[in-house]
Amino acid sequence: MGIVFKQSLKNTLFIYLGFAFGGINTLFLYTRFLEDEYYGLVTFLLSTSNLLMPLIALGVHHSIVKFYSSYFTKIEKDRFLSSILFLPFFIAIPIAYFGTLFYEEIGSYLSEENPVIKDYTFIIYLIAVATSYFEIFYAWAKVQFQSVFGNVLKELWNRVVVMILLFAVYFELITKAEFIYYLTGAYFLRTFVMMVYALKLYTPKFTFSRPKNFNDVIRFSGYIILAGSAGAIILDIDKFMIPGKESLVKAAYYSVAVFIGSFIEAPSRAMLNILQPLTSKTLNEENHEEVASLYKKSSLNLLLISGLFFVLINTNINQLFSLLPKAYSGGVLVVLMISLLKLYNGFLGNNGAIINNSKFYKITLPISLIMAFSVYFLNKLFYYELDMGTNGLALATLLVIFTANTFKLFFVKRKFSMTPFTNKSLLLFLIITVLYLSFNFWEFPIVNVYLWDFPMHPIINMILKSVLIVIIYIFLILKLHISPEFDSLLKKYYK
Fold it and tell me: Rounded to 5 degrees, what angle do the CA atoms 123, 125, 127 make?
């Protein structure tokens, strides 16, 4: 767990730094420097490109993680990497051809309710291609157990670029349309930098020879394409559906709430960057004891960190929304549901990595397809028919992913005879629940304080409440010896 914990801490730091830039962009700059319509447009373009990305990538980034550690000679590794690196072109080029051929029809369909989308439809494809190859070269680095640099590019690069571009819009150095074009260029530049870094870590001798198990690789990629596409639908179909009923402005409001609720998933993303290739390696070595150990430790430590941020966000959410334009303040329930989902995902640790990198990976396809259809129909039911608004979209996502992940929990228990539970898991859930209920409705009685026209009272309240929560939380964690890794980390720096 040493390499996992070490790189996870670095990754978490950069992810939260990325969230800090993203938070400033999402909560303050986008809402003030860019019109709500254009903010919604950016949200729509990026979400739709995420739906297309798994198809273009052809599952290559997942195949690298799963199969790379099964090859033991440089010749085998070179054959493997050479044979799959160019696979995405076989789908990207036909999509480009037919997309150009039917551009008018596609653009008209997507822009039916919001005409501004039509002129930017091609951006969806370009960003999807750039993101696909970024993920491929990021996976290339991860299997060398070097995830930090790629994580910096993934979490920080675009958000810093967005901040620079938003200020450029504000000072009228570029137009709102140019903002979108420059952002697209930033995606391609990021991919190029990632490629150079990955090839520096490991440069294969490119060959036309295929590895012996190439058919297995292709078969796995085929399943992952469908499963990944379904997974993308689950995550982004809600933002895609909003412009079909309401204006792009509503997509902007929803995006802000989802961003806030997703804040707690940073530790999971950080740890899984290194856990995925490590889990694959231990499974390929048939070291099930180590897999079980990683499962329990990742679950407990992710729950520990995610739980703290769950409490901090949801006990301060009203003050946070009071700092935003009033139109954004209706997303409190969305934040709660999304953050609950992310908390549960953290508790599952490397559950998904165990399934995806084992011989039972085929189960991910029917699960993902059922989830995709379920979330689509529940979105239609809650959002269109029952008119529950964006709360309905969040509820659909929560119900579907919670149910599917619970099934995966029992699936791993049955096939591998292992669970993420420890005797400390229930105790940790209890601590999180008590702190949330205790501080959710309690505020510091501070009179309104303003800096110029900006209200400082909510900020002071959030700081005071957060400091108190952190102190109590860390005290309980240490006193009850919840996590040996957390205890040793603190002892290392505070002897």
Answer: 65
